[in-house]
Amino acid sequence: MTLDAIPGDLYHMQDLLAPREQEILGRVRDFLSTEVAPLADEHWAKAEFPFALIPKFGELNVAGLGFEECGGETPSSLLTGFLALEMARCDPSMSTFFGVHTGLAMGSIGACGSPEQRERWLPEMGRMDKIGAFALTEPHGGSDVALGLRTTARRDGGAWVLNGAKRWIGNGTFADYIVVWARDEDDGQVKGFVVEKGTPGFAATRIENKIALRTVQNADIVLSDCRVPEENRLAAAGSFKDTAGILRRTRSGVAWQAVGVMLAAYEIAREYAVQREQFGRPIAEFQLVQDLLVKILGNATSSLGMVVRLAQLQDSGQYRDEHSALAKAHCTTRMREAVGWARELMAGNGIVLDYGIGRFVADAEALYSYEGTREINTLIVGRAVTGHGAFV
Asked: Where is the Acyl-CoA dehydrogenase/oxidase C-terminal domain (predicted)?
């Protein structure tokens, strides 16, 4: 099939996808436009999650892409990126929900689970019969989690006893499988555990009053002598290096999400500019309005070029920490500028949901912060290019 061009994809980057990949992207795009977009503002405003969409998401057969146990195809990193872009272009909340489930939760099990564990959990997660979450961040801090992780795991016979607290856990209020990262009291190393919903000692409370990604159900989690069987300890997660390997892969997905948000901002602002009239003519005819549109487009286009090259590095085996860190820091910074310019172009109409851009302006703040702040990603890149670490 031939896909319609994405508004704002000025250099036709979408055309780099293989025909079969374009077909997959097209199916997802149709689903987003018909099922997700009509509900996005309503659910965002109410801070409610559209649970009825989960089975329909599962029918797309994209959650299991790249996981042998799911029997799905092995996608290029370019397709994976464009899927994140497409979801964020429609609704960053649903893109985040999907990214947490597939990239963080399934990604942790796929990378750190034993063959038996992968067979046990991944197929039903690939069908989205079961939903995953990823519990790393804690209430007392986020950026220092590598050294400051306080949640503990203590071996007790054939089980592990987990104690601690987690915060900002996407999908945490309803997930069936929560990948919890805890420090082993015996050797001091960070290990991963799959805590199943309903396990005694596990409690999740929804975080209220968010101004961004309101549809995402973020949770505060408390683990109180929560007993997890040994078979639920991720077999290949033996230190924080394994945790960081998961974040390296998913961080690039946030950069793709940022591009999706920028393209949405461009599309909304352009449509508004050609329809809105002032002084007897469309505001698109005014030079300052065109300047704003071109700045938004420039940010989106340069960032899209960066993440496309990032995907090529992933598939060629040349991918390193600094590649995803620079993309995440740069693209989310450009995203913040772009959504601000779009709201500026729309003046007062830009601050209400009715005109489309307000939700993206708010959601951009969350994308800017999660998966490593700009400052932390800057230090990762700085260490790579100078050979000197500047972390505290």
From this structure: 246-385
